[in-house]
Amino acid sequence: MKNQLGQFFTPPEFAKLLSEKINNENLRILDLGCGNAQLGLSALETKNSSCESFYVGIEKDNFLATSASKRLNSLGYKNDILNIDALSPELDKVLSVYGGFDYALGNPPYVHYSNKKNLTEIVSKIFPSINWAGNSLRSEIIFLARTISYLKVGAPFSFILPKLLFTSERYKSFREVLLEMVSNVEVIELPDKIFQGADVSTCIFRAVLGGKPSNITLGKSDGLGKLSDSMKVTSAEAIGRMDYSFHSMMKKIGLGYDQSIPTLKSEGVLLKRGSSSRANFLRQSLSHFHTADFPKKSNFISFNYNMKGRFVTASNGDILVPRVGTRILDRQVMVQDGAMAITDCVYRLRAPKKIAEKVLAMLQSDTGQLWRQGHARGSCAKYITNESLLSLPLI
Fold this sequence. Notes:
Number of strands: 17
Distance between the termini: 46 Å
Strand content: 15-25%
Largest sheet: 9 strands, mixed
Strand order of the largest sheet: 3-2-1-4-7-9-8-10-11
Helix content: 25-40%
Structural class: alpha/beta
């Protein structure tokens, strides 16, 4: 369920997974943007009936705040549900009466906020060494930073966050700074489409504020909220990527996270995405190559045209790869004759002649297919970024 604030409520089985490692009995628990208090309920249910844990939920929506309070009160759980904006400057004063919190959890709204001074200050207070340039800030990072600011040193916290924060090169500095602040880190990939109406891939991030850094546990959850597999990686590996799918794929193909491995990019392969949509080609009755045109049983294709002009075209020796399409991301084809315009759902790889066949063979191989599957993003139509495709190892 989603409301106008960008909230997607957490299914009970994944709320339970989020809070399953709370060990102490008497805690002050904080949840910024608590929604219907499902996370709080799961945290409190992990305790025995005699525990004295106290839950503080912050919720901007008055209806949700009232409903959450009634829900917890009816079950006899001690709580304060406060109807206030979690990003309000007044929150510091409101929460000061509780002292530091012993545990926190959260599933922040999936929205972007304008990069205003007060929001930048919230984030910079916790992540001072990161330059948050641009016109907007991710709400998930703002909520995480603000939550950490209210925790005691040594307090555990658990958050549901977008997978992008753990996989994208753009957030590498964020991962590096975050790992310097915490210990006992676990990142658990959640199945796609668990949040109704949200096209976002997510992970559970669990850690303890402070402590000595150690190896990071990466895991994967099944559809019932149970951990299906896990592995350990080093801090250096986790800074590069912090998702189980990637590191398990690297393990399968016998590679470590090593930037010295030759890649398509380092070997001079050029990538170009098609410049126009299929719909545009159809409106103009123009021939084109789209994802639906990739042959199923051949890695070579010839065109009966020699198309040139304002569109991105593929010609002899070029290799075409789907950019999007859950069922076809493992396909590739080399052009043998002719030239044809490609849609914006197709990548053109143009490799130096001496390695063109090697590039095609790598894409065809189990390694090449596992690589693309491991790097695919999105929860509906899977897609691969040009950054990820060019990082394919050429071995």
